[in-house]
């Protein structure tokens, strides 16, 4: 069962399952706890996993004033402190990976390691134009179903569209009782598109694993590789047949990869990072 926890000015919706080393999962644009369901189900036998709804998504309200990645990173830190988690392995995807980077920079004592899926340090012109297109689309689409069907063309592989996976995801989103207002999607996009960590990433001193989808046309492998090159000692891997969200399309493969990474770090003879 989930609960709201107080983090600064916000009551943030969180869910925590499992037992073992702590893991914090940070979702991307408009994504809620449910976006991590394959991980909450598949890894809870080995980890204590915490997921939460970002500000302005799901069951967490959007406060007034500007939205920034720094504020969302502080929200994530507040969740860990409110739940009494001293430090965690942190995994984030897309916009959530940007929040995870900022969390490691602003609150390094809370982060044991990073898994960054479909990430970037600064949007290049292509990604910036795509973000502006999505910003327009969320307001211009004739309905939520149409928006999701068109938006998901960029997020999931043709395989997932053709085998019915995307259709199921659309139905699940439409049935969710806490839809995200278009304005909140746009405010999140604005925050992600203006944020940059390029000059600060070399300060990250925890083990980092950067994953890219070979078929991802948004956070493309070259953007992910640039992040890995900037973080000392970071690992980089391309999942050639996957797109933006392989943790949903190929959860068993994705879970196995990050589980192996975390197990290595949690081994008794693992070196002390940093």
UniProtKB/TrEMBL annotation:
Signal peptide: none annotated. One of its GO terms (molecular function) is hydrolase activity. The keyword Hydrolase applies. Gene3D superfamilies: alpha/beta hydrolase. Keywords: Hydrolase. Pfam families: Abhydrolase_1. Residues 23-249 form the AB hydrolase-1 domain. The keyword Coiled coil does not apply. This is Alpha/beta fold hydrolase. It comes from Kocuria oceani. The lineage of its organism: Bacteria, Bacillati, Actinomycetota, Actinomycetes, Micrococcales.
């Amino acid at each position: 069962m989930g609960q709201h926890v107080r983090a600064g000015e916000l009551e943030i919706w969180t869910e925590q399952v499992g037992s073992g080393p702590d893991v914090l999962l940070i979702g991307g644009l408009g994504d809620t706890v449910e976006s991590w369901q394959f991980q909450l189900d598949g890894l809870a036998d080995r980890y204590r996993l915490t997921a939460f709804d970002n500000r302005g998504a799901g069951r967490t309200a959007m406060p007034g004033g500007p939205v920034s990645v720094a504020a969302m990173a502080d929200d994530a830190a507040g969740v860990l402190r409110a739940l009494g988690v001293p430090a965690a392995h942190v995994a984030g995807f897309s916009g959530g990976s940007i929040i995870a980077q900022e969390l490691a920079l602003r609150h390094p004592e809370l982060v044991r390691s990073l898994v960054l899926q479909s990430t970037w340090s600064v949007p290049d012109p292509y990604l910036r134009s795509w973000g502006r297109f999505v910003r327009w689309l969320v307001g211009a689409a004739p309905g939520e179903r149409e928006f999701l069907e068109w938006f998901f063309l960029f997020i999931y592989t043709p395989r997932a569209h053709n085998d019915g996976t995307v259709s199921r995801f659309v139905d699940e989103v439409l049935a969710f009782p806490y839809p995200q207002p278009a304005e909140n999607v746009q405010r999140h996009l604005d925050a992600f598109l203006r944020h940059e960590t390029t000059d600060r990433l070399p300060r990250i001193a925890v083990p980092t694993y950067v994953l890219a989808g070979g078929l991802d046309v948004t956070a493309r492998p070259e953007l992910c590789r640039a992040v890995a090159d900037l973080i000392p000692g970071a690992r980089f891997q391309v999942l050639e047949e996957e797109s933006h969200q392989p943790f949903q399309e190929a959860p068993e493969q994705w879970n196995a990869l990050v589980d192996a990474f975390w197990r290595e770090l949690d081994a008794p003879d693992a070196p002390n990072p940093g």
